[in-house]
Description:
This protein is α+β, with helices and mostly antiparallel strands. It has helices at 33-38, 40-50, 84-89, 151-154, 170-174, 230-237, and strands spanning 2-8, 11-17, 22-25, 57-59, 65-66, 76-80, 106-110, 115-116, 122-124, 132-133, 136-142, 158-165, 168-169, 190-198, 208-213, 216-222, 248-250, 272-277, 281-289.
Amino acid sequence: MRFATIRHEGSERVAVVVSDAELALLPKDLGDLVGIIQGGPEALARIRVLLPDLRQRLPLAGAALLAPLRRFRRDILCAGWNYWDHFEEGRGKREGQEVPRPEHPTFFTKSPDTVIGPNDEIGFDPNISVKWDYEAELALVIGKTGRRIPQAKAMDHVFGYLLANDVSQRDLQRAHGGQWLKGKSIDATMPIGPFVVTADELDWRDVQLQCRVNGQVLQDASTKLMAFPLPVLIEELSFGMTVRAGDLVLTGTPAGVGNARTPPVYLTDGDEVVVSGTGIGELRNRMRETDLRAATAPGDGQS
């Protein structure tokens, strides 16, 4: 199944994509998508039984798609340098933060406040950074809580997959002691979606990821090129650390990022960035200049 979260008649609703043209709204009492994921196989089985009789259908075209996951219990978990071609393209361009090729996955986190929907505008503030970069990624959603998960059972813990554009501010990424949290956590800068595709409907081992900026293809690679495949990422991430149903995990970006190009290609106001993945759909977002230094976030009401 493919799950979407949409805004419908003033409220957020979960829907199932029943065709390339149609959505079926799920009953409100099923809650949000995180609740469905945490409900495990029983929740999915109930939805499969309900689906043929759901009468509230909407056209997919024009639906107000939101980020499919809207509620997070922790920071977003991420793998860096998970394609060797991406690791190699950055040699000599890490501004004094060069490291040997990692023997284990490189992990970092991002703030949940980065998350926006698949068609939302990406906040852009040149006063925060002058090196805004794109990163097309396959993301996964943990569906079964676990710790010390062996590779042989790792994929049993995956609920499904979606796309992410890990927009990064490269100067901030280099400015804070070699760790990446700040340069990966600017508000309203990471589109995810458009749907969560359940694990039984997608072969994660060969998803063709692509990123186009203003129509130009800048990234185009298969997930089969991952340095550390998903079972390895899950085993290493869960070693001594609990991963929980509903956690979002980004799995790395392939070569072609703007910072590694000659000359570099950085995003700016008005750029259209499209990230696509076979079997998942696409994120289509435009950079829009926004005051991201304000003391109060839009709608926050607090300083």
